[in-house]
Specification:
Blueprint: E1 2-11, E2 18-28, E3 31-36, H1 43-50, E4 58-63, E5 66-67, H2 71-79, E6 81-84, H3 96-106, H4 112-125, H5 141-153, E7 159-163, H6 171-184, E8 189-194, H7 197-201, E9 206-211, E10 214-219, H8 221-226, E11 232-237, E12 248-255, E13 258-264, E14 275-276, H9 281-293
Parallel strand pairs: 3-8, 3-9, 6-7, 7-8
Antiparallel strand pairs: 1-2, 1-4, 4-5, 9-10, 11-13, 11-14, 12-13
Helix pairs in contact: 3-4, 4-5
Length: about 300
Amino acid sequence: MIEIKGLYKSYGSGSKSVKALQGINLSIEAGMFGLLGPNGAGKTTLMRILAGIVNPSRGSVRVNGHDLAIESERRAVKSVLGYLPQELGLYPDLSARQFVDYMAILKGVDNAQARQKRVDEVIAMVSLENDADRPIKGYSGGMKRRVGIAQALVNDPRVLIVDEPTAGLDPEERIRFRNLLVDLASDRVVLLSTHIVGDIGLTCRNMAVLSKGRLCFQGSPLDLTRLAEGHIWTIVSPDGSKPDDGLTVVSMQHMPEGVAFRVVGASAEQYPQARPEPPSLEDGYMWLMKGSNGRDAELQD
C-alpha cells in the first residue's frame, strides 16, 4: 500500500523555480497500477520520491505504513522496494549474471549461497538463462530492460516501480515486457509509469493521470474511457482537409472515398456527416488532456 498526501516538489528558487509536483494525493494498492501522462508531467519526479532518491518539498509518503520522511523507515522501505529507472546505468563489460549479483550485494543480500540462488531465479524469471553469461554490451534494448527488471527483483521486493519500461522497444519485446509485469503484480504492488496509453490499458486495473505536475484523474481504465463518451466522431473528408473548429484529430486513415479522421471534441455539429463512435482509452486520455491543458495535447505513443 502506498499513501501519498499533499505532495509538492519544486526545483530551484524564486522566479526560476520549476513546480514538478503540485499537491498530489494518491492511494495505490496491491496489483498493477498505471501512472500516465505526457513527458514533463512529473511522473519521473514522483517515481524518484517513492524510491527514496529525491525528497519532496512538502507532503507525506507512506509505503506499507513506513514514513519516507523518517530515515530509519526510509531504509525499511528500500529493503522491500525494487526500482527500474528510465535510464539504468549498466556496466557493458559485465555479464547479466555478474551485474545482477553485484546489485544484490549492494542491496544487502550478503549470504553468497542464497545470493547465487536468487540471482539464478530472477535471471530465469526474465528469460535470460541462455544469455546470462554474455557481456551486456551485446544485448538488444529489450534484453537490457530485462536485466533491469532482474536487478530490481533480486531483493524480492513487495513494491516494484518501473519508469517508462517499454519506450523504444519493438512490438514483440513490448508484449513480453507487459506480460512479465502482469505476472509480477500477482503478489506485490507494481507501479508502471509511462506516456504510452496502450501499455496502461493492457495491464492495469487502476490508474492515475498527471498533467503539469497535477493529478487530473484517478480510477480504472474503463472510467477514463467513459469520460469521452459522446465526444468521439469519424469524419470522412473527400479532399483530405483536416477537421478544425476545436476538434482534435486522434488518428487518420486513407480510404477510397477520402481520408477518415477520428476526432475528439465538445461537438461536431458543424460537420453533418460526422459519425459518432464508441470511445477507446486513448480517446478518454485525449479528452482529459484537452480539459486539463486548456488546449489540444499531443498523444505520445
